[in-house]
Design goal:
332 residues, Ferritin, two-stranded antiparallel sheet, globular, binds Phenylacetyl coenzyme A
């Protein structure tokens, strides 16, 4: 899909501040003309940094996001549900890998990104620091979390950095299946016994607000949005996407016969959108800071998986060294 090969002969990027105004102007004109910026093209260092930050955090979210659902694989209620969930979780792993590759094209290695995650320097989505208590949570994750992810990711197919945009095309197709499988679980539970319907409602109550938080701080408090919109990394703001998600999801909840846990939720005829209540931003920032037991469990699980996989990486390196030695001998 894209290459992870870096131009080893390229000179180090000019430090921020000392960048050539002519290069910046040419870059901005390309972005304004909706051209894709490719790995070997010149780009401002700040553009490279913000993309590396966003793409690597996105990748970490996909990988950490496998954990809450993985927790329910062995307890899926039927073989069919288990097979679907397994495929979905494997897709998330694939998304993480495409995204790490896209971020690597910006000059940061996979090891550096993983180290940033494991040492707590890099973020991942707050949503994955909430626990999955029962099977209805798996429905709510697919319906709401994947639903929010698609809302955010569809515009990223037109992000200005080519490798990120192309990775998003396939990711969005798969997320759309994930959202439907989640909605299908919710539909089965909402039409099931009173106890099952109550579980579906309880899951909606617990996942609704964290799903709205996935879109990030409000535009007034989002330090990166203005510049990212200018560079067409982000095509829509956090609040615009959050509003779209609310507008799309309310009718789905109605179809399920479930109640969104927000007394302030109301259709606003004048705006042509739903009004909704205030998000608890203190909770959002506490979760971003990794407070609470689930964040610690998540990182413990990721570090263990990385350490357990060390022999696979060593074997792959040894295989590659042998292959390279054979090719060198054949060429001599
Ligand atoms: N969680 O100035 P902004 C998925 C941080 S994939 C944690 O608004 P920006 C698939 C932000 O990084 C879900 N941190 O930042 C799946 C920044 O920190 P920094 C992930 C958050 O980048 C489903 C600071 O706050 N999706 O779910 C969050 O312009 C089911 C200030 O914020 C993506 O990553 C948060 N929710 O906008 C997998 C999509 N929100 O680094 C498994 C790509 C904000 O400056 C199961 N990313 N922060 O210190 C984006 O679109 C953007 O990066 C935003 C944030 C919108 C997330």
């Amino acid at each position: 899909m894209y290459t992870t090969e870096l131009d080893k002969t390229a000179t180090a990027p000019t430090p921020i501040g000392g960048e050539d105004p002519a290069l910046i102007a040419a870059f901005e004109a390309r972005v304004a003309a909706d051209e894709f910026i490719e790995p070997k093209d010149w780009m401002p260092e700040a553009y490279r940094r913000t993309l590396t930050r966003q793409i690597s955090q996105h990748a970490h979210s996909e990988i950490v996001g496998m954990l809450p659902e993985g927790n329910w694989l062995t307890r899926a209620p039927s073989l069919k549900r288990k097979a679907i969930l397994l495929a979905k979780i494997q897709d998330e792993g694939g998304h993480g890998l495409y995204l790490y590759c896209a971020a690597e094209t910006l000059g940061t290695s996979r090891e550096q990104m993983i180290d940033a995650l494991h040492s707590g320097r890099a973020k991942y989505s707050t949503i994955f620091n909430y626990p999955t208590l029962n099977w209805a949570d798996i429905g709510a994750i697919g319906w709401l979390v994947d639903g929010a992810a698609i809302m955010n990711q569809v515009p990223l197919q037109r992000t200005s950095y080519g490798p990120y945009a192309r990775a998003m095309v396939r990711v969005c197709k798969e997320e759309s299946f994930h959202q439907r499988q989640g909605f299908d679980i919710m539909l089965a539970m909402a039409n099931g016994s009173p106890a099952q319907k109550a579980m579906a409602q309880d899951a909606l109550n617990r996942w609704w607000w964290p799903s709205l938080m996935m879109f990030g701080p409000s535009d007034d408090n989002s330090p990166n949005t203005a510049q990212s919109i200018r560079w067409r990394i982000k095509r829509e703001t956090n609040d615009e996407l959050r509003q779209k998600f609310v507008d799309a999801t309310v009718p789905q909840a109605e179809l399920l016969g479930l109640t969104i846990p927000d007394p302030a939720l109301k259709w606003n005829e004048e705006r042509g959108h739903y009004d909704f209540g205030e998000i608890e931003w203190d909770e959002f920032y506490a979760v971003v800071r990794g407070e609470g037991p689930t964040a610690k469990e998540r990182m413990k699980a990721r570090r263990a998986a990385w350490n357990d996989g060390a022999w696979v990486r060593a074997a792959a390196d040894a295989h590659e060294a042998k292959r390279a030695a054979r090719s060198a001998a054949a060429a001599a």
